[in-house]
Amino acid sequence: MSTRAREADAQEYPSWINDAVAGCVATAPMTLFMLLTQRFLPHGQRYDLPPEIIIQDLARRAHLHWLLSKRQVLLATLVSHFGYGTAMGLFYRPVERYMPGPSLAKGGGFGLLVWVASYLGLLPALGLVESAYREPGRRNLMMIAAHLVWGSATGLLASLFANRR
Fold this sequence. Notes:
Blueprint: H1 3-10, H2 15-37, H3 50-61, H4 70-89, H5 92-96, H6 103-125, H7 137-164
Transmembrane segments: 20-37, 73-92, 112-129, 141-162
Keywords: Membrane, Transmembrane, Transmembrane helix
Protein name: DUF1440 domain-containing protein
């Protein structure tokens, strides 16, 4: 192995990149969890998940809804959901410093914080989704659990990346 190759291998990524990657990767099990558990909700609560509702609403607001096929909506939904998970991952390290416990607990707590900030604050304030106060209890429980999955995975991955150094 050349000296340059060894130097490239030894080069560290900034922690914010690791945290963004952790948030992005953690969105995969979260998305799978939401899709699987949605099937167990009462029939009247099995409507589209928040990421898809947001994309459909944004497409309507931009007068593009008639242009997009269901497949394009789903692709945009996935891209935006993983993008949001990546962006929220950027906030993990500054917040986790103030949280006690192991990475799994810190991540789970962070996931709950993201749910509260998103569904009781930011997203309703932007008019993108109804406040969680207006959603049925079981649907909220599903979304809270999904954010626990995401946060726990984010915490574990961020810790793994940090220890890799």
